[in-house]
Amino acid sequence: MSGYPHTLNLWGVLSQSKRIINAHSRHFLALSVSFLLPLSFSLIIYPTLQTALFHSGSNLFHPHPSHLSFSFFTSTDPLAYTLLAAVLSLLALATISYSTFHGFYGRPVKLVSSMKSVLYSFLPLVATLIVSRVIYALIVLLFGLLAVIVVQGVQFLGFEVGYDSNYLLGLGVFVGVVVVLVVMWLHVNWSLAYVIVVVESKWGYEALQRSAYLVKGMRWVALSVLLFFGVLIGLLVGGCSSFLVSVGAASGGWTSFGVILQMVLLMLQNIAASVVLYMYCKALHGELALDIAEEFAREYVYLPFDNEKVPHVVCVVQS
């Protein structure tokens, strides 16, 4: 690992990911339309319609034939919707990560190759997702059991604890905050896991461990990337859903379409930014130069690192 401190920040990651996307704009447009557009549409429409079911005075539904087509979304099983959203997310992760990785090196990116990458990375991505969610669930269960043990221990000592007690409420809030912090810490450490699945063909707990290793020294950058895109996408989903419920689908259709396009762009750059962060983390750990030396022997290679961002400008010249 390099002994030099880095000065890479969120804006460096964003600018580099934007450069890659702009260099292959039509390619990423095709991938976005294929996966991110339906995902964004579902993230906006489904929660909106479900929320409207609990508002009898909502303008979203009225007896008009053009609104009958929305009955499919209102009757869709939440589990089926979750599975559909997960599949679209993983397909987008697989294809866009693959293309961004090759675009980072300045290689030509092809739509067919990106689509074919799904055959090799989709199931490992599913396995990694399941492993991470199981760990999250076990952590929540563990802290829940600890809270129950504490309450039972206090009662065993002869103290009476009512369910409406302020002490019990305080304990619940404390446990909840600790769980959120632990899950957030793990999420930051595992933020590169899906990129590693696509690029390095590792999966499951091995990919999570690899991500935790690479992100060392870059946790604040990883956290800023997660918060930046998470907050913006969350605000778009929540704001647009509330807007559609209040004004109706017919009145807010064009506005919601604009929000969906903004979400597509944000999710596209989010995935690309994760790949760029992965590459910078490898450079910070001294791994990138060796990879380039092995793959691009007898060629001159200049990677688009900014001297002011990361102390690794990788230039390999071999004869």
TrEMBL record:
<feature type="transmembrane region" description="Helical">
    <location>
        <begin position="220"/>
        <end position="245"/>
    </location>
</feature>
<keyword id="KW-0812">Transmembrane</keyword>
<keyword id="KW-1133">Transmembrane helix</keyword>
<feature type="transmembrane region" description="Helical">
    <location>
        <begin position="28"/>
        <end position="49"/>
    </location>
</feature>
<feature type="transmembrane region" description="Helical">
    <location>
        <begin position="79"/>
        <end position="101"/>
    </location>
</feature>
<feature type="transmembrane region" description="Helical">
    <location>
        <begin position="171"/>
        <end position="199"/>
    </location>
</feature>
<feature type="transmembrane region" description="Helical">
    <location>
        <begin position="257"/>
        <end position="280"/>
    </location>
</feature>
<feature type="transmembrane region" description="Helical">
    <location>
        <begin position="122"/>
        <end position="151"/>
    </location>
</feature>
<protein>
    <submittedName>
        <fullName>Uncharacterized protein</fullName>
    </submittedName>
</protein>
<keyword id="KW-0472">Membrane</keyword>
